Write the structure tokens for this entry.
Amino acid sequence: MKNKEKKRLIMFNLWEIEEQMSWFTDMSLQGWRLTRLNHGFATFEPCEPEEIIYRCEFSHQKSNAKTGWEFVGSRNIIHVYRRIPGEQSIEIHADPIKQAEGLSILKRSIFTRGLLTLLLTILLVGLTMAKLKIDPVGNYLQDTFIESFVFLIAYFFISFTMVKGMIHTSKLMRKLKSGTLLEHNTNFKRKMYQNQWIAGSVILMMSLWMINIVTNLLTVPNDPFPPIPKGELPVVQLSDFMDTPLGNQGKVGEPFHYFREDSSLLVPKQYELNQEATVHATYKPAIRSYLYEVRSTWLAEKFLKALKVKNTSYNENYESIQDSAFDELWISKEEYKSAFIARFNNQVYYVVYFGKEPIEALIDEALAKAKG
């Protein structure tokens, strides 16, 4: 027989009293006797397989030792006793009314914590919705919604668990007040597997969130302003619509002259071009050109709307163009600046141009690229 102790995570909520007693007894039948426990873990030592009876009480009574029971340990307000082998013992769960009085302490504790958790969850939902509205475009491009979503789900699970606790405790109270004693040999495995599944889901979700954070930190580009590659680009660039030879086109590494790619969960392909050039001493056109390949057409529709609202607040007044080959097309025209936002299936183009060429020439180029 191994002489090593075994520490097991207690996969039962505090109020699942019948299941805890049944689990402790089942472990003894497998050759493991409970020696101590705390809020989260139970420690067992090897023993000969036998049925050891355990009871959970709501008050620590030293007098129980005189009636054939020994104190093992406590888990919050739950105190666990083990029947002393070979001694005459008096059942300490003989009075259901007295048990109900003890259980009422646990019920009040669960109700208080559950109510506080529900209020915090409602508050978090409100804060999350407000946060998502602050930068809706960032939710798509930078996954800023994930953190709020993770915390929201975590609080939902906590609230759901606390509500279950209040319902379960109320059922036990009604059972005891009707004169029926608690069960000491119930089927605990269903509750155990259910709790394991919930805990595993939360841990998996938190792990994926942490992996996403670490991955984003490790994939930060060394050069924040990568040089513009030669040749064809997925976005509209100056050479696509200007017949005039372009002179100086800015220096590599400048914040107004670069091409970079990015990715997010909802927009897996993102292209951004900032380009400026000199045609002659008094004419220096510039362009900011973006292409977003969104995860689905439905999301692309929502993303375009958010993108238009954001850039309208930056003094770009957009007008809808109905007779266009694009699924959606919005144009903004000013004296020295023109811009458009367009969608073709799940592709969203956003282009801002500073120059003399008509915006229609840029739109045609974007449409040609969208159609492939």
Observations:
- The helical segments are 17-29, 96-134, 136-141, 145-177, 189-218, 238-241, 297-312, 359-371.
- DSSP finds eight helices and 13 strands in the chain.
- The chain has two domains: 1-220, 238-371.
- The chain has a mean pLDDT of 86.
